[in-house]
Structures are given as structure tokens and as C-alpha cells.
Amino acid sequence: MGKGRLLIVEDDVDISKMLRIYFDSQGFETMVALRGEEALDICRRKLPHLIILDIMLPDIDGYEVCRRLRANLRTSHIPIIFLTQRDERSDQIAGLELGADDYITKPFDLQLLLLRVQNSLQRANRLSLTSPVTGLPSSKLIEDQLRQLMRRKDWALLYIGVNHMDEFNDVYGFVAGDDVLRFTAMLLTEVVDELGAGTEFVGHIGRDDFLIITTPEAAAPMKARLQQRFQNEVVTFYSFKDRERGYVEIVDSSGRTQRAPLMTLAIGQIQHDTVPFSDIREITEVAAEARRRG
Prior knowledge:
Elements: E1 5-9, H1 13-25, E2 29-33, H2 36-45, E3 50-54, H3 62-71, E4 80-84, H4 89-97, E5 102-105, H5 110-126, H6 139-149, E6 156-163, H7 165-172, H8 174-195, E7 201-206, E8 209-214, H9 216-233, H10 240-245, E9 247-251, E10 257-261, E11 264-271, H11 280-293
Parallel strand pairs: 1-2, 1-3, 3-4, 4-5
Antiparallel strand pairs: 6-8, 6-11, 7-8, 9-10
């Protein structure tokens, strides 16, 4: 995935093309949207690590795009750099008040913009806001969401782990393992988009652990769909031989060959009335136990 996934929201085709070529050459994975609604749709389907956002767009303006991103649990953490011809102080204040991380005016220096992008991504990583592998919210953002659950009475949580991933990594290596984690993150967001209410939170706890915060009504269908799709699709990460026989062979510390099953998802499901919760540690402990039983 290189240095990160950028979304450039710019309706000037020449500028957007120039930025895409430049950031691609710097090792970033770059996506482009020419309209505000298109940018919001891309964020739902493939979460960027940072957004370069023009204010003047042909449908909704950049302020509205920023407002909607900040209001959505799944996108509220994404760093946003406003890129615009407006250089009035009031415009800069308006953008920053909406939660933008930085502001740069046209005409701009590409190297300066690159430094702004790198600094914003580094700040996000220092705060442990996102997983460097999947780009999903992690650590502090997950804790913040769990604390908010303590004040709600309408939530369900899916605690998700990948069974037999250690054995997969032993055979195929950690690079292939990271590909599986990215696939899992993509699968989670796709199923949430398909079956959710639009207010869900998807997070990467660490290693092969994920969670989804959703509604009690949507939790069970999501759980079933995730397990079915993962089982059907994860086989593409295995060799033809391993797929055919349904297991991988690993050599243990004693030199003996052992068989390990193909990866599956273990999902624990809890909700607000499962047991009385007094703090977020109890939520995670009960959810982890539900996953082990599942």
C-alpha cells in the first residue's frame, strides 16, 4: 500500500491529474473524485488515509463534504487538507472550525503540499488513530467509541478475529498476512455498507482483531454474511494445492508436520442488554469471551 492512500477531491481535471501523478510517484496510492458526492461514495467503499479537498466543487462544496465526513463514525478521523483558491482569513477559519487539519491555497508548491500531507499522516499515526496496515480506526478512536456506548441503549458489537492466521503466516509470510488483513477490512466495510444503517463504526483493534459497532437488528445478519463471505473468498490467498486439500502443513518445533485448517472468522456478538456494563473493559472482556465461544 506504499506510504498511504490519498483521496484528491478536485474538479479541475488538469490539477487532479497532476496531483495524482505526483503523489503516485512519491509512493502513495492515489484516488481522485471530481465531485463532492463522488468523494463521499469513495470514502464509504475504500477508506482513505488522508483527503486533499477543494472547496469549490460542482455539486456540494468542500465544507459540506468535510461536515458529512466529520459527522460519520467511520470517516470522522480522516485527516483533511483544504486546497482552494480562497485565501481569506474567514474561509480558513470556517474550514478549520469544521475539523480540517490544514489549509493550503492555490497556486501551491507541490513539495510544500507533500510535507503537509506527510505531517498530517505522521500526527495521525502518533495518536494511534488508524491502523497502518488496514487504514481503519484503531486504539484511541476505538476507545472513544466504546466510551460513547456506555451512554447508549441501542447498540450491538461484533468482536471479530481471524482463526488460524498464525499458521497462515508461518507458511506464506507476513506480507501475505497483511494482504489478508486488508482483505478482511474491505470485507467488513462492504458488509456494513450492505446491511448497516449508515451509522456503523468499523475498527481494527490490532493483529487479527476487528470490531463493528452497529444496531441490535443488523448484528446477526452481518455476522452470518461476514462468516459466509470470508470462508468463500479467503481461499484465494492459498495455493491451489492447499485449497484442494483444505489445510496447510506446518512443521512444529519438534520437527513434526502438523495440519492447520484454512482461515475462518470467529465472531462474538454482544449488545447493550447482554449484561450490565460499568466500563469499557467489561465490554471488551465479554465480547472476547463471546468470540471464543463462537
